[in-house]
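Reminder to self: tokens first, then the designed residues, so the page reads top to bottom the way the pipeline ran.
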């Protein structure tokens, strides 16, 4: 049983690496099996097809996001929390960048995954609104409920489309980097800048400087 679990974990980890490096559409189960040095039959023992591997990776992504995208209980939010959320978002986007790059194709190819994604997206939007409300209550942001709703939606659109934007604006052989994704996180912070309270402005500006990536690096 231990050997079977180890093989399954290897399939998941190496599939993620291949999808991230070459794009999901360029990789088949035969490619994955050959990369691992196992037979296609061995791979199919653990996963019936490529969609099953993708579903497993999406489940890992869901769990990672769920761990950090929640408002802490029993205390007020701080600018340090904002740093934590943004850095955690960056890490998740980078680690599972193929999901962002190939999202439309993945959802079109698998109706079950599409239904799961809609539930995931709805939950994320709810959690993000609660977090923004927490920043308002802490005096870091000054916003009305309808502005929180709009900012949450706009931030989600940026975060979920940023990788595809980068791929559309750069040559096919230009690699993605964590720095390029960092600029997407900065764009979210820039959306919030008009709502930052005077008391929190200096701390937030320091965070903006930390996350800023020149546009010339994004659009070579």
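Designed residues (220 positions):
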């Amino acid at each position: 049983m231990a050997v079977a679990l180890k093989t399954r974990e290897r399939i998941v980890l190496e599939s993620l690496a291949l999808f991230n490096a070459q794009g999901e559409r360029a990789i088949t189960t035969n490619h994955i099996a050959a990369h691992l040095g196992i037979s296609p039959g061995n791979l199919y023992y653990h996963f019936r097809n490529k969609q099953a591997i993708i579903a497993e990776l999406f489940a890992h992504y869901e769990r990672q996001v769920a761990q950090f995208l929640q408002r802490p209980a029993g205390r007020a939010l701080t600018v340090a929390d904002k740093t934590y959320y943004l850095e955690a978002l960056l890490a998740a986007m980078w680690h599972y960048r193929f999901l962002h790059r190939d999202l439309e194709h993945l959802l079109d190819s698998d109706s079950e995954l599409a239904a799961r994604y809609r539930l995931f997206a709805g939950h994320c939007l709810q959690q993000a609104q609660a977090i923004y409300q927490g920043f308002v209550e802490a005096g870091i942001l000054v916003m009305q409920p309808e502005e929180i709703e709009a900012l949450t939606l706009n931030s989600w659109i940026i975060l979920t489309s940023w990788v595809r934007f980068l791929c559309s604006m750069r040559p096919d052989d230009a690699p993605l980097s964590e720095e390029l994704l960092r600029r997407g996180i900065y764009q979210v912070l820039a959306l919030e800048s008009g709502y930052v309270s005077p008391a929190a402005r200096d701390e937030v500006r320091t965070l903006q400087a930390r996350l800023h990536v020149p546009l010339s690096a994004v659009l070579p």
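The CA atoms of residues 68 and 84 lie 8 Å apart.
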